[in-house]
Known about the structure:
The structure is a single chain. The protein is an all-beta fold. Helices cover 0% and strands 55% of the residues. The chain has no helices and 15 strands. The strands form three sheets. Strands 3, 5, 7, 8, 9, 11, 12, 13 and 15 form a nine-stranded antiparallel sheet that branches. A four-stranded antiparallel sheet has the order 4-14-6-10, with no helix packed on it. The protein is globular, with a radius of gyration of 21 Å.
Amino acid sequence: MxxxxxxxxxxxxxxxxxxxxxxQGKMTLLQTQTASSSSSIDFTSNIDSTxxxxxxxxxxxxxxxxxxxxxxxxxxxxxTNYNQTMTTTHFQAEHSExxxxxxxxxxxxxxxxxxxxxxxxxxxxxDNDECFSGSLTLFEPSSSVFVKHFMSRNQEYESSxxxxxxxxxxxxxxxxxxxxxxxxxxxxxIDAGTIKLYGIKGS
Length: 203
């Protein structure tokens, strides 16, 4: 196969006829879900052994109720209890419109072998211009050998007019393949927003 690329070699130009090794890791869009006063958003397909890494992208997620934490849980096969055991950590940096700033680790937002829905934001505001955006990365969910690691980073407009950069990470403590993820606010509906699921190929 011939490519229309050229390279300079002093004063001459020669055609490149064979490409080198191309980088892997392309993101492939697998699914898009848009909220409309939704109690939760569930991804029950496309999470399998096809990709080693899956990324959920959150775009302008807006709560119906003010000051709500956005959460997730996982499950296996066709189970719908969404109560897998997790060990997690959670911290944030913040700066208010009034100039107040802080950086803190939240022991009240993490879990030690807990089965609750895991918070991945602080208290997102529900004013018309308030929302959050960010991502959740899930590693090797189909592994039958290892636990399932995840990392999340989200930027939110908090209900008390703070810009908050929120980090959450941990592992789902099961060697059974994870096949489904549920997202919801702690209370109230997901009023609006979009979640996209991508798969990333290995290197």
